Amino acid sequence: MKLKALSAIFPVILRNDEGSVKILLHRRQNTGYQDGKWDISGSGHVDEGETATEAVVRECKEELGITVNPDNLEFIHLSQRFLTDRTYYDIYFIVKAYGGEPAIMEPDKCSDLKWFNIDSLPHDIIECRREDILHYLNGIPYSEKTKK
Prior knowledge:
Layout: E1 4-17, E2 20-28, E3 38-40, E4 44-45, H1 52-64, E5 73-82, E6 86-95, E7 110-117, H2 127-137, E8 142-145
Parallel strand pairs: 1-6, 5-8
Antiparallel strand pairs: 1-2, 1-4, 2-3, 2-7, 5-6
């Protein structure tokens, strides 16, 4: 069996708020994957022929209505995730600057958009995202998640 490999990008959008670092998350709905849980805002698949940074720019515009210059992205983590029929390469970038104000641009796929303290993530965040955020906070640039 030939294993399919896919890539997804995760733009980590942070802000300082009264001495604490906040991360922007969105609540998934009607996607067929982890609906009802919090996820990294503006995340999505890398399309065919597209680079990871191009995907971040596109997804941030499509999902959040913000403009991102690729020069304002900083790679922070790569996670290789093994599923039954495919492998995912989850690529995380810090968005150091952007234009506009983040908003829900795809209300059919996202029911809420909210800033959370990065040290106190919601209990109902997608577990592999929680793990990867913790890897970032601990300076770990690469991780693997095997089939269970």
